[in-house]
Design goal:
About 45% of the residues lie in helices and about 15% in strands. Bound molecules: guanosine-5'-diphosphate-rhamnose (GDR). Guanosine-5'-diphosphate-rhamnose binds next to helix 4 and helix 7.
């Protein structure tokens, strides 16, 4: 049985990836920091097959110990301070976890290594936020980086150090440059889930306003369940490499809001939505759209869920969730 260790196991990608690896017959280990908290308890209920190991991307000895315990064939580094807005407020912490955390994990892998004929394979969750102020569209693996947030800067370091360890030490290390990917498991602080949850609550009469920031930024939004397959596929190749993972379609935040409200029959959505400075960022990424030709041709990967199906999936999930919480029958 192959073994995999996932950092960021409580996040949306960690959960989808754990399910995928389980279906591929892996033994799955998840790194968690801290003591029991509601997120960890929920994970234990939803994904009881995941064996949890305590450790922290800020603490090298704990990473070495986690690798020794899990003895993984594959390590997926999905752990990070991943909320871009927060990274402006906690820039140093972001650099430490999202940036230096990658270096620590790579060092731990060098130290523990895995067996000689079966060295540990490493996946780094890189991000389209590295492209930032884009200088070419669509973005491909060779597009220059121009990050626009402490998060983006930290991800550039994580990406570069992954490539550097591959070049320097021959590690089987891959970097997936993933564009935005969403799901019903997305955290409520991210714009898509914030919108679908509010739309559900407004439709059910539980809320009357949705307060957002800038509605003009454009993102290439895909489904997280599709994207974790690309992560796994990267580590099954003969050679390590870097890949853009994206749908190739871009939509503004405004279009996402419009689609979500229309899905529940509220076409006059402007009356529910207001904007507030609080949700604007000191520097914004205006336009992202990826070209995943390399992933399509070399990995055979392609996204299955399109933009409107994704919006519908998330709104329908939140309608059920919020109706159940409020004890309302819906529809
Ligand atoms: P992003 O995701 O920054 O693209 O990073 P997010 O959903 O937070 O923002 C998307 C866009 O929406 C605008 N926006 C708002 N955003 C939030 N969160 N809340 C609001 O109220 C709001 N109003 C407008 C933002 O300004 C932005 O332009 C995500 C994260 O998952 C990263 O970790 C990942 O690397 C990238 O996607 C790819």
């Amino acid at each position: 049985m192959r073994r995999a260790l996932i950092t960021g196991i409580t996040g949306q990608d960690g959960q989808y990836l754990a399910e995928l690896l389980r279906s591929e017959n892996y033994e799955v280990f998840g790194l968690i920091k801290g003591q029991n908290n509601p997120k960890i308890e929920a994970l234990q209920t939803e994904l009881p097959f995941v064996e949890l190991i305590s450790g922290d991307l800020q603490d090298l000895p704990s990473l070495v110990a986690a690798l020794e315990q899990a003895q993984p064939d594959e390590v997926y580094n999905l752990g990070a301070i991943s909320f871009v807005a927060l990274s402006f407020k906690q820039a140093e912490l972001t650099a430490n976890v999202t940036g230096l955390g990658v270096l620590r994990l790579l060092e731990a892998i060098r130290m523990v290594g895995g067996s000689q004929n079966n060295p540990i394979r490493f996946y780094q969750a890189s991000s389209s936020e590295m492209f930032g102020k884009v200088r070419e569209s669509p973005q491909v693996e060779t597009t220059p980086f121009y990050p626009r947030s402490p998060y983006g800067c930290a991800k550039v370091f994580g990406h570069d150090i992954t490539v550097n360890y591959r070049d320097s030490y021959g590690l089987f290390a891959c970097s997936g440059i993933l564009f935005n990917h969403e799901s019903p498991r997305r955290g409520i602080e991210f714009v898509t889930r914030k919108v679908t949850n509010a739309v559900a609550r407004i439709r059910l009469g539980l809320q009357d306003k949705l307060v957002l920031g800038d509605l003009e930024p454009r993102r290439d939004w895909g489904f997280a369940g599709d994207y974790v397959k690309a992560m796994w596929m990267m580590l099954q190749q003969d050679e390590p490499d870097d890949y853009v993972v994206a749908t190739g379609e871009t939509h503004s935040v405004r279009e996402f809001v419009d689609a979500a409200f229309r899905h529940v029959g509220l076409d006059d959505w402007e009356r529910y939505v207001t904007q507030d400075e609080r949700f604007f960022r000191p520097a914004e990424v205006d336009l992202l759209v990826g070209d995943a030709t390399k992933a399509r041709t070399k990995l055979g990967w392609k996204p299955e869920v399109d933009f409107h199906s994704l919006v519908a999936m998330m709104v329908d999930h939140d309608l059920k969730l919020e109706a159940k919480k409020a004890g309302i029958r819906y529809p």
